[in-house]
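Backbone shape codes:
***
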Amino acid sequence: MAQAQLTKLMEAVEIFRDVYSEIPPQTCLMFMQVCQEEGCSIKDLQERFEMSQASASRNARLLSDRVHSGRQGLGLVELRIDEQDYRIKRAYLTEKGKEIRDRLTSIA
């Protein structure tokens, strides 16, 4: 891999670390997939990254506004119930998420 490509990858990692210094790699991948395919379902993300339902749900909550009742999420995505099927949650970028997406794409 060329030095310039490695430098860009390191810059991307630093952007994520600015958001949350302990962000898991799976969460970064999920966020980048939402950037590419806004409105994808949590099930789509689970299958895409071959993770358990619990892991996909946990990572999606971390990206959203609240992990659980006592802990705030990162606020990068908004999880919305699908209008046709209430069992499906879809992920959309928040304004903060769009800012991070723009920072990531500016280093490409």
Remarks:
- The CA atoms of residues 59 and 85 lie 22 Å apart.
- The domain at 1-107 is CATH 1.10.10.10 (Arc Repressor Mutant, subunit A).
- The chain has one domain: 1-107.
